[in-house]
Amino acid sequence: MGFLRWSLRCIPGLSTFCLLILLECALKIVQTEWLAFYYPPFLKRGPAPVFAQALFIFYTIFLHVLALIFPLRLIASAWTATKQIRITHNRPTTFSREALNVAENIPSQPGQDDSKQSSCVIMAIVVPSYKEDIEILETSLRVLASHLLAKTSYDIFLAMEERDPNGVNVAQNLIQLFSGSFREIQFTVHPAHLPGEVPGKSSNVSWAAKAIEQKYVNNPDWPGVLITVMDSDTHLLSQYFETILTHHLRNRRERGLIDMTLYIPPIIFDRNAHLVPQLVRIADLMWCGAGLSCYNKSSSPTTVAIPTAVYTVPLPLVCLADGWDTGSEAIGEDMHMMLKCYFATNGRLKIVSIPSPASQCNITTATAGIRGWIANHCARYSQALRHMWGCLDTGYAVRQWCKIRTAAARSEDQSIESEMSSSGNQRRPRHVELRLKLSQYALHGPNLQRFTYRNLVLFSRLFEAHFLPLHLFFVLLASAMYTALPYPITSCRILTAVMDLTGYLRGVSFAFMTIYFVIFYERYHQACIQAREKEMKRAGLYEEMAHEFSYRGRFSLTTLLDYAMFPIAGTIYGSAPLLQAIVSHFWTEKLVYLVSAKPVKVLATNLVVQPGSDRVELRADV
User: Fold this and answer.
1) What is the reported pLDDT for 218?
2) 61-89: pLDDT as tens digits
3) CATH of the structural domain 74-375, one choice from 3.90.550.10, 3.40.50.1360, 3.30.930.10, 3.40.50.720
4) I need a labelling partner for 615 at 20 to 30 A (CA). Which of 63, 160, 340, 450 fits?
5) What gap in Å lies between CA 218 and CA 612, rounded to an integer?
6) How deeply is 332 buried, as exposed, middle or buried, from its count of CB atoms within 10 A (0-12, 13-18, 19+)?
């Protein structure tokens, strides 16, 4: 690995190291304590380091302003999401005539009847699994099978791992059980020990996506294949897919082009939150808020949203981005794929928030008592470390941004790529290559620009995720230590005034976060619960899933403690794992991927193992 690549990988760590140097130069905390302990006679006030203190003042105000803007944006997003979820899920349950009306105006492909336009959209749903309990997968598939579009549009891909000794048997059991419930259901087996790959969700999804592309790329309806990636325990409502279908058909009608849109739902932990330790629940509430803060009422050219666990991408966009990455840098698979699509479309990726929540389980273990309490916290920390390990995506984004060059250079590269693709691309047919390039050119235009407002928004989101939690923590710690010094050797009135100002800003930020939790999150949680209740009752699944609803009392003692303890949970499951991740990145980017434990429900179902021919085979070129 070259020094430049290593430096980009370690940007969060290097920035934190520079921040610590700045704090010492500006506040001289270590020097003051050293002199006070060993050489008290030398403890005299000297000239103030003007430049270092000016830089510190600017940066601490910048951090506190960002910390203030985040809860304001979160409140607005939660209010918008709640309103749209209620509107969407209070519509009649019969599938959208709107989508059919939109489909009538889509130009037909040569030799294709207009009446078949609405039926040519295929929802390829990837369900990755590694040593997951079959009950979890079965419950998720039963929810999908209850949807109105399941038998006509859902093509299920159970993405199993060769490293899982029971993976094939589990997949075959599920295929036998859900035969006839979907348009199609099959499984893929991701081989172990492929060169350049690391175990994890991204490499597994990548293998399944290759199977999807191989299956549909020669189909004339391949632009209508939408790939949804979800977790094994995710419960998606039918309105999620129906809303995506409406957006997809409208995009094709209005633009007359291949759809290049990333669809993202908000997430909600509403299944077993009442059964997990409080700090674990609060950490997941904050993780939910991180995704919810990017929710937008309508897509705009400057919209930037980062998916959390669940998202949908059209197959042409997957082909354009060259699929999912499989290296250690892609451990944050959802954010990484969004960045790949963003730069593959020259920063003009359309991102649409779907007002249908994805229901998730809080991480838990099967151990009871005090050992179980400790095990749950350790498991949540391991999950947080995996999330924060995704700060590698900052270096990836900077590297892709630096590759942006002038239009002339890009045109030259495109002509070379065109000649190479015409000479022979064995995996992808020539007509697919041509349509991809024409669609990209017509939709995104010939110009590439580094300095755009949307790029600024993108990197501000990355800064919020990978820098702000740790930088703000160190600034707060240093400010508290400096204030506690009885005889600081450096000080000035402006510095003291700024510390007082930032103290007020922290208080205002805390107040806004409390308002978000007490009012807006509770309304959002209630709207999500009601939407899922309504759909489960319609599907006849409510009675057996009634215990999988976590209700919240707005002013109960437990809820009030949740509101008060979020700074503690944020430090334990935000700042601490981020610090461990950025320090580890100085010598490695590899992390042992551990599957998060889920709650298990035993289902009274007889399963029969019958090896069949539903497996999608892919040969690994090793």
Assistant:
1) 81
2) 999 999 999 999 999 999 999 999 999 99
3) 3.90.550.10
4) 340
5) 25
6) buried
